[in-house]
Amino acid sequence: MLPGGIGMTAGLALVSPHLQEQHFMNQRLIVSSALASALALGLVGQVAAQDKGKEKCFGIVKAGQNDCANLSGTHSCAGQSKVDNGVDEWKYVAKGTCKDMKGMTAEEAKAKSKKS
Known about the structure:
Order of helices and strands: HHEEH
Strand content: 5-15%
Number of helices: 3
Low-confidence stretches: none
Shape: elongated
Oligomer: single chain
Largest sheet: 2 strands, antiparallel
Mean pLDDT: 78
Structural class: mainly alpha
Distance between the termini: 71 Å
């Protein structure tokens, strides 16, 4: 309620058309932002669901075929590994198959990197 008992909608009638337009644009922005956030959260959930059956496997990656940043921090993107089977490079594989490929977990790769 505005001063004098005037409701918000009725109060807008007393305000310039420019301010009314700004008010409704702000409401649209809030609604649009909320909708975009909800959609983004849904997409994140889908990506996480896709990765449930996968695990990171270190030391099996061919040059340029890594999935993301390496353990040593020399790069931060997919496809930037420089050598085949780099200890600190990884890619997603089906859960339970990494050992069969002679790969390592992140902990094993960290330990092996420290020895080198």
